[in-house]
Amino acid sequence: MHEQDSRRIHAEHDRDKAEQLFEQARRVEDPEQSERLRYRAERLRSRSEAELRREPGAGYDADDMDEEGPQ
């Protein structure tokens, strides 16, 4: 049960971080940097929401790590 709680807490933290990145992307004046931030935020939010919806007992997929995004 401890591992499930830890994953959930981590996913909630990632979801909050994604919202911070979206906010930062809105404030940035450079369109390319804004696009990179939005991309990272979307990936992070998607992964965290999937983890929060995951059934208890399901494993964590370390291969599904955040990518850097558009360069």
From TrEMBL:
Compositional bias (Acidic residues): 61-71
Region (Disordered): 1-71
Pfam family, one: DUF6381
Ranges annotated as biased composition (Basic and acidic residues): 1-56
Name this polypeptide is given: DUF6381 family protein
Phylogenetic classification of the source organism: Bacteria, Bacillati, Actinomycetota, Actinomycetes, Kitasatosporales
